[in-house]
Structure formats: C-alpha cells, structure tokens
Amino acid sequence: MVTQTEIDALRNAPIAPRNLLIDGVFREAGAGETLPVTSPIDGREITTIAKAGGNDVDASVAAARRSFEAGTWSRAAPKFRKQVLHRLADLIEENTLPLAVLGVRDNGTEIRMAMRAEPGSAAGTFRYYAEAIDKVYGEVAVTDAQHLGLMHREPVGVVGAIVPWNFPLMIGAWKLAPALAVGNSVVLKPAEGASLSLLRLGELALEAGLPEGVLNIVTGKGSETGEALALHMDVDVLAFTGSGAVGRRLLEYSARSNLKRVFLELGGKSPNIVFADTPDIDEAVSGSVNGMFRNSGQVCVAGSRLLVQKEIATEFTEKLVSVANSLTVGNPLDLSSDVGAVSNVEQLATDLKYIAVAKNEGAVLAAGGKRILEESGGYYLEPTLFTGVTAEMTIAQEEVFGPVLCVMEFETAEDAVRIANSTPYGLAAGVWTSNLSNAHQMVRAIKSGVVHVNCYGGADISLPLGGVKQSGNGHDRSLHALDKFTDLKTAWISI
467 lies in a domain? Predict the structure, then answer.
C-alpha cells in the first residue's frame, strides 16, 4: 500500500521539457515550438511538451512505415513480441507510483484511482495482449478435396491512435497493446492536456526492447497534430477515443485522404437504472456515486443519468445526496481526497455552463453546483446532483463530462427503457434489481454496448468495450480489439 510520504516525495519533482518520440529518438519539434503543461492541481505550469507540426507527423509516419516494412517487429517471431510486451508490463509495474503521480499532476485524477486505473490497468492490458500473441490463430475453411482454403490474420501496417486526457495510460494501452501485439507500427497522439505519462511510456517501451520506429509519439494540438495524422495518406487505421464532434471530423478526414478505417469511442450519456427491488439500496447508492463522481465525472461510461423507481425515489435520493455531500474534494495527490480536480479550465467552464443551463430549465439543485478551492489556483468542482430532471432537458441529453448527475423517476420497466434509450448515445448502462428475468430483459432492451447489473463499472480487459448509436463503433479490450488492427487474407489453393 502506497503511503502519503511516498507520494509527497514525488509531488513537486521537476519535470524536464518533453520532446517527440520519432524513430527511437526523442527530439524537438521541427519548428522548435512548445506547449505549456498546466497542472489542474494549482493552475501552475509544470513543464512544456513539443508542438508537432505537419513535417513532424510526416516523419513519424515515415518511421512507422519503415519499421513495419523492415519486419523487425511485424515479422518477428511471436515469442519475441510476447517477451517485449511482458517486459514493458514489468517496467510499468516497477514505475507504478512515479507514473501515477506524473499523470495526476498532468490531469488531476485522484491518486487512489490513478494507481489502479492508469499504470495498474496499463500493465495488465499489455500482459493480456502479450499472452494473446501466440494464441490467436488463422482458420482453415471446409472445402472439397481438390482445394484448401486458408484465412490468415495480418497486421494492417501503420496505426494512428489518438487518445483523450481523462485516462491516457489506460486508454492508450487499450489502443497500443493489441495493435503492437499483432505486429503493427504505431503513431500515438496523446491529448495536449495529458501527454506526460504516455511520453514516459515511450521511454519504457524502448527500454523493454521495442525496435526503433515501431512506436512513435507526437504531441501537440488536436486541431493541428491530430488533424495531420488523420489526413495522412500512409496511415492505414485510425483509432480514437474522444468527443463526437472530433469523431465526425475524423470520418471526414478519412474520406478526404486514403479511406483509412476509423474506429471511434465517442462517450455517452449512460443510464443507471435502480428498481425498487434492488438487492441492497445502500450498495446501489454507493455504486451510483462511484459510477458518477470518480475522476470528477470525467469517465466515458459514467452513469450520469440516474433513473430511480418511484416507490424508492425519495429514500434513495436522500441517501444519494448524503453520500455525495460527504465526498472530500481536494488535491488529487492527497490520499484523503475522494474526488480530485477537473482536468482543465476549459472543462471546468463547460461544467459550470451545464449547471447554469440545468437551473434555467427547471432542474432542482440538490447538492453541489459550485467551484471550490479557487484560492489554490486549481480547478475543483463540488459533486453536483440535480433532481426533477426530465428526459428532454439539456442535462439529460448532452454529455457534460464532469461531476454532474441528473436524477429522474420512473414507474415501470417500460418507462425506464424509454427514458434510457431517449438519447443519441449508447455506450453503457446499469441495472439494479433482484429479479433475474427483469435483469435479462433490461440487458436486451437497453441500446448500449455495455450493461452492468447490480454494479456499475469494473469490467476487466477480457470483455469488450464499445458503443452503439452515436457512441461510436469498434471495440477496445478483449480479443475483439484485435479485429481493428488485423486484415483477413484468404488463400485459395488448388491441390
């Protein structure tokens, strides 16, 4: 168990300016430009990152293509790739605390969650796909005696990966590990608001023995660096997690360039449905709070729409408000903090805007609603809860991506399904009930990629995560993630 003393020893450690990783070498951007890195903990600049331009993106893609065609990774024996990815997982685990603290200083996630969800999750992800390397086979078709039909899996080539700021290591590993496991080369573009831990991961990958050029990391603005990567004619597949607005642009960039395949995880407005027969009302309250307010609500699957059956709505809401008000919001590097900082000042402004809109539309503010600890210079927001919300309200339709929960009542299962399916999103959902038949029926009826039953969150790497409707396409996690990064090649052999 990590101690506060160990965390404090790293709290203010100097961070050298960080450069681009291209072809195995960390180097400045071609134009020499940088971006400041501002910590949400106190609003202070803690270092800078290189601002990659179009020429830098070209160089990174060229390095990825060279390494792929050279075959030092793409055609390497599965045993070698497996050893390297296991060694990378070892190095992540050996650097768990420094990686976690570095990430927290960058994006504000509370340290207790960051330890588990960032380096802890990333190490497990690399191990999972390392083990998959020599266990995923091609196929032999059933044919007549004169023919042999084979289906080979081949790496696609150069993968572009664009990841967000809320869980950069975890989501970065979801893209990198399966793409690398099957032999691709990758150009990774982290969010400009959370690049530090992924740049450190690049150092560890080289130390683990990943050949030069197989993993390249370019930092910069999404509107410049990310756009250049998405438009590049020599990127074969683009994997993205982020907003719907950016996802739409990436699809346009695919059409404007080489028709690269684009896989999108675009967030959600996930319903968390509590029936009157929930097995344990206190457990449902606790699960609903954790499923919403961890990482200041900056979680793509956050259960931001809480649907409570009318018979228990008053009791449940009272308990919910009590637990929400008991959460300690504070410096995310303090083990005593239940909720850390909002990741950046722009997101804080967005959260406050949605709170104001909810009030104007008639929702009742039952808890929170204010920026706090402003004297620290950091970006902190009280866990916020609205009641009296209707399905048509803005706060019930649009993804806030902050610690803002809306509570709605329903009477029947049919009502719950109607409300649950009333948004453009379909990423995740939750159902709390003692009735097994009801649970199965709700799983089938709710339009989402994931449905939790009598819990919220916690599915491991062996299960896929992906959305329907405007929550995107394709899947992270599980063996199904390999489908994004492989091509099927048919061999039809006359014998």
Answer: no
Taking the C-alpha atoms of 341, 346, 352 and 356 in order, what is their torsion angle to the nearest 10 degrees?
Answer: -170
* Pair 166, 183 in one domain: yes
Helix axes 78-94, 96-107, angle to 10 degrees: 70
Q: How far apart are CA 419 and CA 396, in angstroms?
A: 10
Which one from 110, 265, 382, 409 is the annotated catalytic residue?
265
Q: Which DSSP symbol is given to 480?
A: G
Query: In this structure, which amino acid lies at residue 421?
Result: N
Active site residue 455: no
374 as an active site residue: the answer is no
Q: Is 387 helix (H, G, I), strand (E, B) or coil?
A: strand
Residue of 110, 192, 227, 300 with catalytic role: 300
The CATH number that applies at residue 371 is 3.40.309.10
pLDDT digits (tens, 9 = 90+) for 108-153: 999 999 999 999 999 999 999 999 999 999 999 999 999 999 999 9
End-to-end CA distance of the chain: 62
**Distance set, CA 234 to CA 20, 76, 153, 202, 413 (Å):** 19, 22, 20, 22, 50
- If asked whether residues 170 and 220 sit together in one domain, one would say yes
Instruction: Quote the tokens at residue 329.
Output: 């919001």
How far apart are the C-alpha atoms of 329 and 348, rounded to whole Å?
14
Mean predicted confidence (pLDDT) in 310-334: 98
CA triple 8-9-13, angle to 5 deg: 105
